[in-house]
Amino acid sequence: MTLRVGLLGGTFDPIHFGHLRSAVEVREYLALDELRLIPNATPPHRDRPGASAQQRLEMVCLATASDASLLVDDCELQRDRPSYTVDTLESLRAELGAEAALFLIVGWDAFSGLPGWHRWEEILQLASLVVLQRPEQDQELPEVLKDLLAARSVGDASAMQATHGEILCLAQTPLAISATHIRSLIQAGRSPRFLLPDSVLGYIETKGLYRP
Ligand code: ATP
């Protein structure tokens, strides 16, 4: 049996129910053996996070503690350089072997910026892509990604059987939650409760994160 592993990378600044619900739905829909959440250390594509890498990792661990099928992989935090997805995929390939099916899960916003990623054209040689719809998505795809979708898209999960190289666009339960919104609520002195797990909110309050 082929091992099927989903990979959800992110800044998780902080992790919220948009990430967690997507993770559970993709795991079930693609019948994954495991799903790894991979916090990034030095995100190459964005401003410095409000919480440290260690704090973001601890929040991801807290959020997933009650679900044994959601694993936390801190491989990007072990590296002393920017978190390039292609490097992570290469090391996971080396760890899991050529026979494993790897599914890199990205939101639509992240996918639309794919051509800016380091060695992005090699990503599909290492994994398949699962592109999550986001309710507020308004990014127009560049031509190169429209062509890629036309060439590599599969219609549904049952067609997604290769170890790498395919793309599935997935409409899951739409949750218009973003870490940006959660941070701005806290900055404004308002509560982000019920947008993220209580355990994560408790951690944010204890550490005084995201306050002005
Ligand atoms: P920020 O608002 O700080 O940019 P974010 O909420 O988009 O953060 P990230 O850690 O950047 O969270 O996201 C990690 C991955 O999860 C990305 O691929 C992103 O597109 C996806 N994602 C985040 N929130 C949702 C959501 N509500 N629904 C679906 N996908 C999401």
TrEMBL record:
It comes from the Bacteria. Catalyzes the reversible adenylation of nicotinate mononucleotide (NaMN) to nicotinic acid adenine dinucleotide (NaAD). The gene is nadD. GO terms for biological process: NAD+ biosynthetic process. Coiled coil: none annotated. This is Probable nicotinate-nucleotide adenylyltransferase. InterPro entries: Cyt_trans-like (IPR004821), NadD/NMNAT (IPR005248), Rossmann-like_a/b/a_fold (IPR014729). Belongs to the NadD family. The keyword Transferase applies. It is an enzyme of class 2 (transferase). GO terms for molecular function: ATP binding; nicotinate-nucleotide adenylyltransferase activity.
